[in-house]
Amino acid sequence: MSVSEAARPVPNGPAPTPRGGPGGKTLRKDRWWLQPLVTVVVLVLFIAYSTWSAFNKVNYFHDPYLSPFFSPCLAASCPEQVRWASLNLMPWISPAIYILVFPLGFRMTCYYYRKAYYRSFWQSPPGCAVAEPHKKYTGETRLPLILQNLHRYFLYFAVIVNLILAYDAVLAFRFPAENGHHGGFGFGVGTAVITINAILLAMYTASCHSCRHLIGGRLNHFSKHPVRYKLWGIVSKLNPHHPKFAWISLFGVALTDVYVRLVASGTITDYHWIF
Ligand code: FES
User: Fold this and answer.
1) Are 45 and 251 in contact (CB under 8 A)?
2) Axis crossing angle, helix 189-206 with helix 151-171, rounded to the nearest 10
3) Distances from the Cα of 133 to the Cαs of 34, 36, 41, 163, in angstroms?
4) What is the reported pLDDT for 18?
5) pLDDT tens digits for 5-24?
6) How far apart are CA 5 and CA 26, in angstroms?
7) From the CB of 249, is ligand 1 less than 6 Å away?
8) Of the candidates 39, 71, 38, which has an alpha carbon nearest to the alpha carbon of residue 257?
9) Does ligand 1 lie within 6 Å of residue 209's CB atom?
10) Closest C-alpha among 175, 168, 44 to residue 99
11) CA 77 from centre of chain
12) Residues 162, 164, 169: CA angle, nearest 5 degrees
């Protein structure tokens, strides 16, 4: 029986079971509130930082490093080395705003993050065997939560963004000429930062439940699809680690943006070697 069925009154039947612990009470003595609290703090900090960064349209690029919040760079104001298009719909807006909906939509509708923020922000439910403030549960069957079903479509965009970030990582090995030194193939701390970030985001996407279904779902015979079976085996190994990739890649993308901004603003030096 699903949670929603358990909470739904049955005509002429017994009263619905109160949600939470026995008798609708919280009997747990452990620190069950710690995990939701940490989730709230981390997500609020990330949202605050990423919003500030998305609107802050300076210091997001230092050749050859581009902040992942701004990639792909689609505005006319983007540096020409990383410009994919020259959109000029609202010249005053930051280039990050054009693309924000895709990573944001992908993360917000992620099955794992849904569990995390339903528990922590809405306390629905706060935890196993914990009294719940809400009287009823309607699930994701109506607006706005029915829009969570868009996750599989956001996945397609996430794959495209991942490919572009992988391309950015390749570009991060190509340094411009500077201070009388020749440019060309090289390696810097920023190269490592941008590459690791692209790998972490790729792991997050590859371990996604919708990705696993896309690769191995709706097949009657794996034996007739050996390539998909092989790929399904790989993503199935990653899938149980999805929560870990969700958090690590979240920190990774923010720290990469911080690094690029610190280098671009001249606050720190990027150590790199050109061969
Ligand atoms: S990204 Fe988390 S389930 Fe798809």
Assistant:
1) no
2) 160
3) 18, 15, 21, 43
4) 65
5) 444 545 555 555 667 766 77
6) 21
7) no
8) 71
9) yes
10) 168
11) 26
12) 95
